[in-house]
Specification:
Chain C: This is Raffinose/stachyose/melibiose transport system permease protein. The structure holds 3 protein chains of 3 kinds. Chain B is mainly alpha-helical. Chain B is 71% helix and 3% strand. Chain B is flat, with a radius of gyration of 23 Å. Chain B starts with a helix and ends in an 8-residue tail after the last helix. Chain C is globular. Chain C starts with a helix and ends with a helix. The chains are: A alpha/beta, B mainly alpha, C mainly alpha.
């Protein structure tokens, strides 16, 4: 027993020493980052080590692509740059951890939040990439994609892909309901829904959980059908949703909830919406081409499912077609910044983007068209985007985080007619106003 | 010699806990208290505003009032019904009939399952389209039921409550351990008097474990004051703010709105509520009296 | 009402209660277990149907996709060590709080009860910084200390109440016999509170076993990470593998139930021996 006591005593002493050290350095914010950098000096002569945190692990569709490209990078730059990868599974966990690291001034050197916009909250810790971007790099990528990644003329992100989204429909079910082709106006769209319904088919996959992703894509597309609406759906961080076109679009969503979707849509998440579409219980789902891979996965769908699926632009020839947030760099020393830029450039070069679209269905943001072996549905989506009349961006990239959250708690009320479209718009406006 | 030794013992025995406490809790606690008087948002906004956060919260933020209301209701329900259920089950198991150990293990199973998994399960159980509850009701009533339990404003609150109210395994083992630490001979006299089991439970056993019961209530109530994961992963506080509680609102305010000062004001409100809770439960169960 | 009828009625009520609570307690685990054998398509088509065949593909995928096996050892070490430390530290403190009057007792108890309610989002950043500054970031020891501290308030209240319900006379007899405080505590008091200590051990172990946020923020390498982090490998925003997720869940839950049973067996043991002595 005495041994235990003595041991715990010595631990106590250690604890006191620790605490002494803590009070000495905790008020200053420098303590944290300083010690961390120290631990990493033990690299090979002349080799720069950078850290990269990624959520491309587990079942993430980008996992295979990332491993291929990292290997290729190591082959080419392995002697100069060593990339230490930290795996963080789960998008939400990734963002949460970045926020803690940000407030402790200890972000990894390179960040890729998979489309989440961290620029507006972490701008002061992100590196302006402009000095590292040469003419060739600059010119190879679509202007629109640089824009999304820039603030006040400074570039905070290296684009890797574009956000291109239409909707998928089940040709078999359409035929059963006697529908020839996807609608070109929303009026026709709703008529088609009636036909599907009459044939005993639930027309739409919808959801409300998380951000109500599938539903909100529909909402954005309805908003974006007019010139005003298109402008709204390209405005970053809008604060006023009390617009007629927005309220009207919300009414249409309300109608969809009331008449054209499954009973599990209210409260459902993306998985439920996708599940209903995969199992052919619904005929239409709005989502991007990264979903196409699943159409061939016989663990999720029946053999030959992919052949039944078509892709279409939203009525009014509206397509989501916008830049996406890419890789961010938060390295602190010039040496590391340079190495990080080299890494990021490699990960977003033509080969990388080509591999990306082939493996994951993420659409490249290159200026020139690349010749790549992709699923026909992906090819078609790209084509639809190129020829669409109106190009919009998605709500998750544009709206304040708390507005996106508000959407998910107000949808159920809207769907059950407990609030009107006007009240819905008012709630979003109130949430948006909270951001200074 | 005794009194000097005693002093040393008190210091020595409380030191490890206190050091750990100061290392990991004191600094955060001070930060929460101090910054609750600041306007602190992302983008470098940081300046003192006095009591403004508190004033805004209690006068101009109906959502906060609603979330406090929900939190209080849930805490009271948990402190009473949840503990009641656990105590009844513990009293039954305390008779040590054959196989009682199996039940003690079974009741604890839901506590072993992570909240994330439980949330998925409950979303399926209460699902409007294929959920167990609706299938069950449909077969009993003989007509299709498509009630959306979690998201219908009329049932949302109760459905969320049902996720934790009945799972009192933790209370069972706390109370059970308390019952087992009562020396057997205390019962003997009562048994000779011919008191029935039921009477003995009420009049002898429960009073003897008064401090343990008080602790069970504290644990149940304070865990409810902290609960947010299950709500976050099922209704996310919705529909509207019907199932929003203070921890979830705090989480949203700090992570979605990056309004840290305001969020920490809620943190202070929570801490004070908790301390008051513990204080009153202590008083009710006379837990500070060591005259057992 | 005749006596035997009343007994019968009470008995029936007991049996019904036990049956109902057994059912609702087992159902979630049963559902996870069954789902781990279904294909993703089967899960999407019908959440409550039985699997069409019992194959272990989900388990294979789960082991392939996530480092779950590597995380087992870490979880076991961290949960066990933090449980031992927590029990040792807290039982000592709770004892003096339950038995002695001293200056500052009320204030310290107040501080501990207030730490019950600090939102963990407020704890994350400061604790991260502290761990980095004392070089315990991304170490097993760091995570052990933090988990020990996280369970501190709960353990404190539970253990203190058990000490309060132990009669004082035994210790007093020990002191009269000339036992020191140290000896009295470790030899007389702790064994008496064994059932309470095991209860706390169970609570603390499960907390550490399931804790996610601090395990995520305070580590960066796989050699330190714990099981709950592995569960995140199966669902991302747009892709999911339910079968593998449920398989992984089963692999996380079952061992903790076994550990729980072992710990509880300890209680029963000590209880039986205690009864014989008494």
């Amino acid at each position: 027993m005495k041994k235990v006591v003595r041991k715990s005593l010595s631990m106590l002493l250690a604890g006191v020493v620790c605490f002494g050290g803590l009070t000495a350095c905790s008020p200053s914010s420098k303590g944290a980052s300083g010690t961390e950098a120290k631990g990493q000096e033990a690299s090979k002569e002349g080799q720069v080590e950078i850290t990269f945190a990624t959520s491309w692990v587990g079942v993430s569709s980008s996992k295979e692509w990332f491993h291929n490209r990292l290997e290729a990078f190591n082959k080419e730059y392995g002697s100069e740059i060593k990339v230490n990868v930290e795996e963080i599974a789960g998008d939400q966990a990734y963002v949460d951890k970045m926020k803690v690291l940000y407030s402790s001034d200890a972000l990894p050197d390179v960040i890729a939040a998979g489309g989440y916009n961290l620029i507006d909250t972490m701008q002061d810790k992100f590196v302006d990439l402009t000095p590292y971007i040469d003419e060739e790099w600059k010119n190879s990528i679509d202007e629109k994609c640089w824009e999304v990644n820039s603030r006040d003329g400074k570039i905070y992100g290296a684009p890797i892909s574009k956000q291109v989204i239409g909707y998928f429909y089940n040709k078999d079910l359409f035929k059963k309901a006697g529908i020839e082709k996807p609608a070109s106006t929303w009026e026709e769209f709703f008529q088609n829904c009636d036909k599907l319904k009459a044939a005993g088919i639930t027309p739409l996959s919808m959801d409300t959980a998380d951000s109500g992703w599938v539903t909100s894509l529909m909402l954005g597309a309805i908003v974006g059908q007019t010139e005003e609406g298109e402008k709204f759906m390209n405005t970053s961080l809008p604060k006023d949703y009390n617009q007629e076109y927005f309220v009207n679009a919300v009414s249409d969503i309300q109608k969809m909830f009331n008449e054209y979707t499954s009973t599990d849509a209210i409260g459902g998440a993306y998985e439920n919406a996708a599940g209903n579409f995969f199992t052919e219980q619904t005929a239409i789902i709005a989502n991007g081409p990264w979903m196409v891979g699943d159409f061939y996965d016989t663990d999720k769908v029946e053999e030959g499912f992919a052949d039944k699926i078509g892709v279409a632009a939203f009525p009014g020839d509206v397509m989501y077609d916008a830049g996406k947030i890419g890789f961010n760099v938060a390295a602190k020393t010039e040496e590391k910044r340079k190495a990080a830029a080299t890494f990021v450039k490699f990960m977003t070069n033509e080969d990388s983007q080509k591999a990306n679209v082939e493996i994951t269905g993420e659409i490249p943001c290159l200026k020139k068209e690349v010749d790549s072996k992709v699923y026909p549905l992906v090819q078609e989506t790209i084509h639809l985007a190129n020829t669409a009349k109106r190009h919009i961006n998605d709500f998750q990239s544009l709206w304040f985080a708390n507005v996106v959250d508000e959407v998910s708690v107000e949808y159920p009320l809207l769907a059950q007619n407990k609030i009107t479209a006007e009240e819905f718009a008012k709630k979003l406006t109130e949430a948006a106003q909270k951001n200074q | 010699m005794q009194s000097r030794n005693k002093k040393w013992m008190i210091i020595l025995f409380s030191l490890p806990t206190m050091i750990l406490f100061m290392m990991l809790y004191l600094v955060p606690m001070l930060i929460v208290f101090i910054t609750s008087f600041f306007e602190w948002k992302s983008g470098g906004v940081f300046h003192p505003v006095g009591l403004k956060n508190y004033f805004l919260g209690f006068t101009a933020d109906p959502r906060m009032i609603q979330s406090i209301f929900n939190t209080v209701i849930w805490t009271i329900l948990q402190g009473i019904f949840h503990v009641f259920i656990g105590t009844v089950l513990a009293l039954i198991l305390a008779k040590r009939f054959r196989g009682w150990k199996i039940f003690r293990t079974i009741f604890m199973i839901p506590n072993v399952i992570s909240s994330a998994a439980l949330a998925v399960i409950f979303l399926n159980v209460f699902n409007a389209k294929y959920g167990l509850v609706n299938s069950f009701l449909s077969s009993i009533l003989g007509k299709p039921i498509t009630k959306n339990w979690f998201f219908d404003p009329n049932s949302a609150f109760l459905t969320v409550t049902s996720m934790w109210l009945l799972y009192s395994g933790m209370i069972v083992i706390i109370v059970l351990a308390g019952l087992f630490s009562i020396p057997e001979d205390i019962y003997e006299a009562a048994k000779i008097d011919g008191a029935s089991d039921f009477v003995m439970d009420i009049s002898i056993r429960l009073p003897l474990i008064r401090p343990v019961l008080g602790t069970a209530v504290i644990i149940a109530a304070t865990s409810m004051l902290r609960e947010f994961e299950l709500i976050f992963l099922t209704t996310n506080g919705g529909p509207g703010d019907l199932t929003l509680n203070l921890p979830l609102y705090l989480y949203k305010t700090s992570l979605k709105e990056s309004n840290y000062g305001y969020a920490n004001m809620m943190g202070v409100v929570l801490i004070i509520t908790g301390v008051l809770c513990v204080f009153f439960i202590n008083k009710i169960f006379k837990m500070n009296e060591t005259d057992m | 009402m005749p006596n035997y009828q009343r007994i019968l009625l009470l008995r029936t009520i007991k049996i019904i209660l036990l049956a109902v609570f057994t059912l609702i307690s087992i159902a979630p685990l049963a559902w996870i277990l069954l789902s781990s054998f279904k294909t993703n398509r089967e899960i999407m088509l019908s959440a409550f149907s039985l699997p069409s065949s019992f194959d272990f593909k989900g388990y294979r995928v789960a082991l392939e996709v996530s480092p779950i096996l590597r995380f087992y050892g870490n979880s076991l070490i961290i949960a066990t060590a933090s449980t031992i430390l927590n029990l040792l530290f807290v039982s000592m403190t709770a004892y003096v709080f339950a038995r002695f009057e001293f200056k500052g007792r009320a204030l310290m108890a107040l501080m501990i009860s207030s730490s019950l309610l600090i939102p963990s989002s407020a704890l994350l950043m400061p604790i991260y910084r502290i761990m980095v500054s004392i070089h315990l970031f991304d170490t097993i020891i760091g995570l052990i200390l933090v988990h020990t501290a996280l369970g501190l308030p709960t353990s404190f209240f539970v253990i203190r109440s058990y000490f309060q319900s132990i009669p004082k006379e035994l210790e007093e007899a020990a002191y009269i016999d000339g036992c020191g405080y140290m000896k009295t505590f470790f030899v007389i008091v702790l064994p008496l509170a064994k059932s309470g200590l095991s209860t706390v051990a169970v609570l603390q172990f499960l907390m550490s076993w399931n804790e996610f946020m601090f395990a995520l923020v305070l580590t960066k390498s796989e050699k330190v990470r714990t099981l709950p982090l592995a569960l995140n490998y199966f669902t991302t925003q747009f892709s999911f593998n339910y079968t593998a997720l449920f398989a992984a869940l089963t692999m996380v839950i079952l061992p903790s139930i076994i550990i729980y049973i072992i710990l509880q067996e300890q209680v029963t043991q000590s209880m039986v021996t205690g009864a014989i002595k008494g």
